[in-house]
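User: tokens in, sequence out, please.
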């Protein structure tokens, strides 16, 4: 009898995990999407703390509109997506491994999901996606390490600059990682950072092909030639391409 009960409990747990995994990979865009943002003072500096204290959802103006307008290019029904700045967290998420060895990535992923579970409180509600925003003073940290987001579990660790002057760049990174969490893949060469043709180009059918006027959001750079590209200055210089729209469910394959 007890063996049957244990087996039944195990099957129930596996079923719950499977259902949640399916939901993570099949976002229903007809329902409102709520993104919760937890700021973190990643470098422990007073300047970063001051920036976080002044942070409001207004600092993200443009991201919500950008995603809604981008979705309209592929969907007949509008997308409702809302961002909310939650409480500041005092504990940093686990560090993303520098070397992308499979075992290291698996261990990090498990640690990150456990970290996210530890930070959850009833007051946070049940967001569609939770992003942990690691802020750094740009006067002390000149270059940020790569951000990442997981589709399974809908969580992300995003590295940003604690500066109003970097707000436009922060929005690009935040939007990029948001779409990662909903299934979008990177569209640049991981070794060189160069956008991959054609899916990493905003206008792959343009003639002549170069220079491109915008960046595909998941490629992150505007191609100026086959080997040269530049970073966009703001979200207005990016767009969500058709391949990305298919990956996140805005466009049927």
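Assistant: Sequence out:
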């Amino acid at each position: 009898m007890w063996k049957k009960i244990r087996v039944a409990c195990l099957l129930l747990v596996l079923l719950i995990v499977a259902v949640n995994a399916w939901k993570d990979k099949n976002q229903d865009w007809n329902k409102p999407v709520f993104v919760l943002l937890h700021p973190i003072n990643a470098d422990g500096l007073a300047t970063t703390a001051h920036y976080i204290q002044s942070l409001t959802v207004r600092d993200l103006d443009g991201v919500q509109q950008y995603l809604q307008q981008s979705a309209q290019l592929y969907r007949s029904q509008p997308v409702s997506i809302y961002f909310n700045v939650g409480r500041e967290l005092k504990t940093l998420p686990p560090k993303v491994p520098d070397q992308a060895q499979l075992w290291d990535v698996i261990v990090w992923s498990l640690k990150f999901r456990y970290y996210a579970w530890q930070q959850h409180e009833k007051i946070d509600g049940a967001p569609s996606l939770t992003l942990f925003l690691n802020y750094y003073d740009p006067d002390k940290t000149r270059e940020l390490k790569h951000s990442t987001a997981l589709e399974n579990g809908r969580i992300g660790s995003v590295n940003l600059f604690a500066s109003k002057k970097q707000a436009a760049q922060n929005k690009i990174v935040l939007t990029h990682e948001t779409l990662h969490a909903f299934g979008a893949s990177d569209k640049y060469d991981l070794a060189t950072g160069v956008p991959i043709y054609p899916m990493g180009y905003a206008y792959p059918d343009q003639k002549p092909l170069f220079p491109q006027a915008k960046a595909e959001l998941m490629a992150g750079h505007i191609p100026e030639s086959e080997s040269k590209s530049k970073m966009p200055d703001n979200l207005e210089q990016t767009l969500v391409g058709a391949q990305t729209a298919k990956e996140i469910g805005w466009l049927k394959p």
